[in-house]
Amino acid sequence: MNRLLEPIRVGFGEWRTVAVLLWANWLVAGLMVAPTVPTVWAAFGHAPLAVGKPLVSSELLIGLRPLFVGGGTPSVGAPLLLLVVLQTFLVGGVVWRASAGGPFRLGAFLGQSGRLVGRNARLYLWLLLLLGVAMLVPVGLAALLHVLGLRTIFTMPGETWIFGSPFGVTSVLHLAVLGVALALWRLSLEVGRVLIFRDDLRTTRRAAWRALRLVLRSPLSIVLYAVLGAVATGAALLLMRGRAMLPEGNAGLALLALGVGQTVLWTRLAFQVAGTRFAAALVQRTDAAPRHVGHLEEPVEAAPPV
Amino acid sequence: MLAPLLLLVVGVTPAPPRFDQSGRSIGAPLSDRTASYVLEARYDPAKRHLTGTARLTWTNRSDLPQGTLWFHTYWNAFKNSESTFVREQRRAGAARASTGRYAGEDFGWTELRSARLPDGTDVRSTLRWERPDDGNPADQTVFTLTLPAPVPPGGQVTLDLAWEARVPKLAARTGVHGKYTLFGQWFPKIGVLEVPPQRGVRTPTWNCHQFHATTEFYADFGSYDAALTVPRTMAVGAAGVRTGRTENPDGTVTHRFHQDDVIDFAWTAWEGALEVSDVFRSDGLPEVGLTVLVPPEARRTAPHVLAAAKVALEHAGRRWLPYPYPHLTLVAPPIGANLQSGGMEYPTFVTVYARTDPAQPRDSLLWEVAIHEVVHGWWQGMVASNEFEEAWLDEGFATWATTEVMNAVGLDWDLAQFLPPGTRWFLGPLLRSRIPERDIRPAGTVPRFESSILRPSWRFKTGGEMGRSTYGRAAAALAVLEQEVGPETFARLMRTYAERWAFRHPSTDDFLQLASEVSGKDLRPLGNALFRGTAGLDDSVTGLRCAPPRPPSGFFDADGGTPVLRAPRAADPGGDVRCEVLVERRGDLPLPLDVQLTFADGTHLRRDVPPGELWTRIVTERPPPGGRVTLAEVHPGARPTIDTSPGNDARSLDATPGPALTVGGWFLYAAQLLAAAVGSLL
Prior knowledge:
The structure holds 2 protein chains of 2 kinds. By secondary structure, chain A is mainly alpha-helical. Chain A is built from 12 helices and no strands. By secondary structure, chain B is of the alpha+beta class. Chain B has a 7-stranded mixed beta sheet with strand order 4-7-2-1-13-16-15, with no helix packed on it. In chain B, strands 18-19-20-22-21 form a 5-stranded mixed beta sheet, covered by helices on one side. In chain B, strand 24 and strand 25 (563-566) form a beta hairpin. Chain B is elongated and about 110 Å long. Chains A and B meet through helix 2, helix 3, helix 4, helix 5 and helix 7 of A and helix 7, strand 31 and helix 13 of B.
């Protein structure tokens, strides 16, 4: 149990790290919705008939589509590209915090991020290959189930989402397999990042391979990591439900809802840090990886005396 | 003996039936029975093969001899990728038309084998394919047969048609899905010979259109008698009243049905379906037997469908015309077949939706669709408009009528009910809502630049535009007429329309003529603008601002006439406050547009925007502080139902940050969740 609780404690204890990640999230989300602000204010900024109405109402939701017919729709592509860059950059700092601990200094955080960004990006690209391979398992399973007349949420008729029940035994089992496959990939990625940080590895292909071997040698870790992901999702869903249950209709409630919404994000990001911490703990515990790798680390014979 | 006693106890006295228990009319026929059929069909589900015969008795209602008869063979729309139906579906899309994804064995067809006159003459050799709408040589959904001797005016002809068919994969209300087969438009069906003054024709004219991806149907009334032979394992539901069931030695069962005075006959053969029966009883209305066929996994659908059907029969029976038919069958298709075959109307036989986990106590999706299809029994089932050319006359009416019934029982849309089971517990609060059907109707439309509501269905730009225009927009347009004449007059109009045009074929002009007659107002100009124009409506207050009048500056003539520069001065603090209100109309519907301004001192000012103007600016100058306009509204207290955006019908001087923050807050929250989800993959 402690293998799960300790990372969660660290994740939530690293509030400054989470705040940096939340700042990046705000930046990206803000850029997404910025184009809508003038349209939304023009439509609802002096709209007495919409006062006191929740989002899902005739006055607000029903009128949204015509509102954006002439433009002003949210921007998604460019902000998400920025997110990729930001996340790839910040992940180095997160690994530093999850592995080394100690006092938080923003400069050091950014310094570590900058130091590792290139290698982390390359590692990610290498591990995309692993993702492709790992996905073959759930894809193959879905095909097999389809042949057997059993359905997954990816192969059932679209109308099942409205008329039927998409979450049957088979589809949930398939989702579980998908979750484990994703956990394998994601944990390998996290471990690879930790290895690069800890051992200052330059060869990212080798780091990816070592990470995968380390993870495969510890199947329990994959399961625990999947459980950690499930706990994170469950916690976020619970908070999302709380956010959705809030009454709406005036500025104060809207701001309150926005605040409660941040707890959802905060929780999600804290679990992200916890995931990295889980990987760091795994590396520390197994001690499977040598401190030095490659030909440079091999013992060098002493030179003969002159 | 018990039944009358029971009725006395519960206090329900039904009206005398119009049909007996075998579906035959009691007393005079309700319709002219121009085209009647005796149908026999044998279905082999393993081979997806249907063999059928039809004895057609057709009456020439015109004053001209008719030597050539026009027929539909609807199933040839599914014959290959080059039929007009499939081509249009690929090009413009259409609801319930998945033929674009057909492969090899999925296609189906109808082949006429013989067409014999009573003397044995087979006129099959005279068959000629016709393409009256688009000239597509590959389309075989309309054909003619030429008789050796024309049918004289008022005369009758009897034809024995024999055909075979391959049942297509389920699409557009027809075909096979697993162990479920729906038979709609399944037999060679004679077109409608329109006779002056019917629907404005000047000479007798055959109205027999090809099967298009977006069209429905048009047929004459008649008697239908059907004997349907299927494997014993299959349940059968069909139009009309069940009159017999015979077990055959070959392991099949022949089901017999009959119904007089209907325009069509559809049925389903379904292995594994559950059958639930009930009876609609209400004081002063004829009894109606109800049968629901549901998939076992969605058995909890049945109570919803039955309850919805009963409220529809009650409301429509009292408001417009008592439902005369003795039986109504409602088919809730298996999961996976709802979108292709659910939500379709045939006389005394409709398809609805099925859900494995209906929302309680009233699932708005199940109820809405069931109500909509049942009220089609009036609007098109009895008042039999031409769905090819004037689809709004049935879909617009049925949508309007659905709103009526939903309002009567206090049923609104709750979007949370759309969520799949397993997600409702946490996503439900997010979408929980009560949105009236009347607000849903015009929401999908954009004022102006949509095709006119009244046009042949295949001449809309897209299937989506056809759907928006003939359902929601048309229903909203009807509600505009209702607002124009008042609810009581409109209720009288609809009842009169149903009474006068039941078992006949009205047109848009017939309806507008009657509307003018009943209301005492010439509603044709407004009706033409609504249905023949591109008219739409979004009236809004787009500007409201108040400021002290700007003091004059610049050169002004002095006493001697010489221009003199007047120095800028500060505004007079005790002077009037000047308010400007900008009202705009998007759309060209000729409805009055009145504006009400509310001042800070509580007084009001009403202004009418001149007809034809698309905007107006109202300027007031009154002493502060009471002279400030605090609120400007269009249509105060009586918003036209066709207005697409009710939220912008008023504007306040003070900011209302609540709605903007609510919408903006949700946008930001959704964007944050999206960014977090994507971030978790990096």
